[in-house]
């Protein structure tokens, strides 16, 4: 049985409008700001082939949700939570409870969208959290999209940087051994690899989730890591890698918009501090 697959990536920002502008400069097609009707938070979405980025602003979210997310800002803006796909939130709630995790109520993430033909519509997405107490921002959550046609919209997946999808999600941890049991339970399967530098899972589409040590992350990303490091939080998601159809076109866009970037293997990297706290890697991988 394959492990769970990545659904979307929540990048906590404050305020939201400058983050929208930042990701547009990076070459992404960023959708207009929308409000989660039942939660009070707001977001702006970047559609990819099989996943999406969510620039997330707490806004009018209730105190309970603020209390979970706001301490993340001690380390600056950045990835604060990642969702895996679920076939049944109710079944997953019972499974994770039985495994000893603390689960939270199912929430509606309904928001208004505009279809490519200009007609309005609403998403019908739901999710639930299962926060960890230690390494809180290495927690995951599960999501279901009852109307996937309002979430995965091909017409909005065309980006000036030629990005197609996320191929690798990277966490940096002060002790990956503390994280392995949680990730194994949530991913519902054994890791693909383990070692002294951490562990990784490879999902059904070939997408990689990697948990690595501070030393290994520093060796790989160096000055492109978030300047605040872990901010005393123990562990954080710190990098996203993207399959990119044309590195030349991506580089040209970044240069024309004065976005600093460096060579990274056969691809490019943009420092976290220029991408709302996310070390951003563009790689020449067939889409």
Automatic annotation (TrEMBL):
It comes from Roseateles toxinivorans. It comes from the Bacteria. This is Glyoxalase-like protein. Residues 6-177 form the Glyoxalase-like domain. SUPFAM superfamilies: Glyoxalase/Bleomycin resistance protein/Dihydroxybiphenyl dioxygenase. Pfam families: Glyoxalase_3 (PF13468). InterPro entries: Glyas_Bleomycin-R_OHBP_Dase, Glyoxalase-like_dom.
């Amino acid at each position: 049985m394959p492990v769970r697959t990545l659904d979307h990536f929540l990048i906590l920002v404050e305020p939201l409008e400058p983050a929208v502008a930042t990701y547009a400069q990076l070459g992404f097609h960023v959708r207009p700001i929308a409000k989660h009707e039942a939660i009070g938070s707001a977001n702006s979405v970047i559609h990819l082939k099989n996943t999406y980025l969510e620039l997330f602003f707490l806004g009018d979210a209730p105190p309970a949700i603020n209390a979970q997310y706001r301490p993340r800002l001690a380390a600056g803006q950045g990835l604060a939570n990642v969702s895996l796909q679920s076939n049944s939130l109710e079944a997953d709630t019972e499974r994770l409870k039985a495994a000893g995790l603390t689960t939270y109520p199912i929430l509606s993430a309904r928001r208004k969208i505009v279809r490519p033909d200009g007609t309005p519509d609403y998403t019908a997405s739901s999710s639930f959290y299962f926060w960890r107490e230690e390494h809180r921002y290495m927690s995951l959550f599960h999501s279901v999209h009852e109307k996937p046609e309002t979430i995965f919209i091909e017409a909005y997946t065309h980006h000036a940087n030629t990005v197609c999808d996320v191929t690798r999600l990277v966490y940096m941890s002060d002790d990956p051994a503390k994280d392995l049991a949680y990730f194994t339970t949530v991913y519902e399967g054994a890791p693909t690899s383990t070692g002294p530098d951490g562990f990784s899972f490879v999902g059904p589409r070939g997408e990689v989730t990697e948990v690595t040590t501070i030393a290994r992350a520093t060796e790989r990303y160096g000055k492109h890591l978030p300047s605040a490091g872990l901010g005393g939080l123990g562990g954080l998601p710190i990098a996203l890698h993207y399959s990119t159809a044309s590195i030349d076109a991506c580089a040209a866009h970044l240069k024309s918009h004065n976005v600093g970037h460096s060579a990274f293997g056969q691809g490019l990297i943009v420092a976290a501090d220029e991408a709302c706290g996310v070390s951003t890697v563009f790689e020449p991988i067939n889409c």
